[in-house]
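Amino acids appear as letters; backbone shape is given numerically. Here is one record.
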Amino acid sequence: MSFSGKVWPAMTMLKVANCPSCGQVFQKNLRNLCQGCQRAVDADFTACSDYLRKAHKATTSELSEATGVSLRQIHAFIKENKLPATFYPGLTYPCSSCGAGVRKGHLCTSCSVRLTAEIRQMRDKEEKAKERGAGFQIRDRLSY
């Protein structure tokens, strides 16, 4: 494009964002962190993996105390499979429902069983309502 005989260079748009950890403006990347926070996360991971080489059966809280890495960051490493719970028997992260230690999935066994039973009860109620006939039954919705 020219303007009074000058050629303007094509404008490129940089995708920038605020780092979710520190708030600094950075150019977007795959990890969605600024360079400083990326280095910090990498250092935390290195500290965790080095400690687990020495103390293979360490629990999550022991790992946090020994390395100074937050439980939240260790849980993220486990969920991202950077620190696989299958290799380290003491590592757990909290259940999404009750907060108990979980080694895989999102729910502990007791919450999973409870939710499955509640879903089954709801299905049974719906089937019984269909058998009685179509329509909204107010007595089914009210519990005394």
Notes: Strands lie at 2-3, 6-7, 16-18, 25-27, 93-94, 101-102. The longest strand covers residues 16-18. The first helix runs from residue 35 to 54. The two ends are 75 Å apart (CA to CA).
